[in-house]
Records
---
Amino acid sequence: MMHLSYIFSSLLLSGIQITACLAANSTTVNADIKSISTLVTSLQDDVQYVAAGISGLSWALQVQQDAIALDDMINQGAKDANASAAFGGGGSLDIGLSLISLEPTITKTLQAVAAKNESFGDLGIIVQYSLTQLKADTDTFANAVVAKLDSLEGGIAPGVIASIDKAFESAIAAYENGA
Ligand SMILES: *[C@@H]1O[C@H](CO)[C@@H](O)[C@H](O)[C@H]1NC(C)=O
Ligand SMILES: *[C@@H]1O[C@H](CO)[C@@H](O)[C@H](O)[C@H]1NC(C)=O
Ligand SMILES: *[C@@H]1O[C@H](CO)[C@@H](O)[C@H](O)[C@H]1NC(C)=O
């Protein structure tokens, strides 16, 4: 039995090693941005159902789950961007376009979250905390991505990121009175 568990843990360790050795590149980071976009859209869908009181509670908790999954993906994206070589011409164009299309998705979602500021009730403080965390992690991710973009896209990206930051700030502000 001990032998088996030894083999199992060695397999587990070698698995981890293999994962760590697979270098991330612009394809990985672009796929991460697509996953982030999907998770943002899920959060946007779920937040529509948040209502004040017990009836809306399960949706409020679902939104909190969505926010955690989203934050994990953003952190994964930051790790991959950090581990990737410079994206080069094609990679920078793909990622630049993905970021440009992600921006309105995030902005719309944050507006939807802000519009529910009264419905979240006592959970508003948790929402505000999550938004603050997501904003900080998004900024870390954005910095890691910008560092790998070609100069053209690297010049455009900060404007896109500034719009995303502004949308975060408005959403965070909508939860100031509940805090
Ligand atoms: C990134 O790596 C994957 C797997 O190693 C590979 O299939 C893909 O073509 C690479 N992308 C670029 C842009 O080099
Ligand atoms: C980025 O990479 C550097 C060196 O490769 C490492 O020290 C740093 O912790 C990494 N940061 C993240 C967020 O993964
Ligand atoms: C919700 O947002 C509105 C508009 O920004 C604001 O007037 C209100 O005080 C906010 N409510 C809470 C609980 O923060």
---
Amino acid sequence: MATASKSGEAELAALRQQLLRAQRMAALGELVGTTTHEFNNVLTTILNYAKLGLRNKDEATRDKAFDRILSAALRAEKITNSVLGMARNRSDEFAPTELEPLVEQTLTLLEREMQKYRIAIRKEFQPAPPARAVGNQIQQVLLNLMTNARQAMAGGGELLVRVHHDEAANLIDITVRDPGCGIPREHLPKIFERFFTTKSGPDATGKGGAGVGLAMCRDIVEAHQGRIRVESAVGKGTAFTVRLPVWQTPEPAAGAAAITPLGAPGLPSQSPLY
Ligand SMILES: Nc1ncnc2c1ncn2[C@@H]1O[C@H](COP(=O)(O)OP(=O)(O)O)[C@@H](O)[C@H]1O
Ligand SMILES: [Mg+2]
């Protein structure tokens, strides 16, 4: 009996892993869509200003053309770095992760999309220690939450992204708050369920409508021993908060304690967070 349920558990765990991987591929697909689109915009700018500079020999026009080409190329560089940031951290290992640059990189990827839908970004970043996180996965959570927020703000507006260190709890909070349509009370218990969606299908950017975004967010955050919370009011807006544990320097092994120099400051005790 015990063996049967053990193998059942193992099977379930393997299926969960597979699902996470499939969701990651889907998120990567969406990301490729966004990035390719962004790159195309940048390329168009570069092509047009290169032609302008070639056609016009006067110095002022050429300077302007070079200026525009340079800023477009810098933007391309930023986009590449944001995607490479994901690739670099692909190990699926928990590591000390600075959340502020992660949020910035995610915003870079969505910059043009947000502009297109007339959404301004307000950032409130407070100094915070690194979190214990898989950067890649947290970026997926952020992409999901920000895309949902954007889709809820049909008329545009201001999207708030906040990073806050809760020192008392030793957790880092990331909040994504939109002044969008809000979530009806009767939907709130269902939004984290897999395949729950109120959208008729993917929007013009190919995102949403499958009802897997928040389920994936919940799975990822739980694997981080974190929490995800929602507050919402219809017609007023929605705030999602992800709480992640602060990275703790591993305690030295028992044998290693003997070589700690005398007089070294004691490490704070490391009680489990949950
Ligand atoms: N910021 C938000 N504002 C309003 N509703 C939201 C927001 N985020 C999520 N929802 C609701 O939760 C549902 C599930 O979200 P999600 O799992 O991302 O799936 P999908 O975006 O594919 O519908 C959405 O269809 C929507 O009804
Ligand atoms: Mg979604």
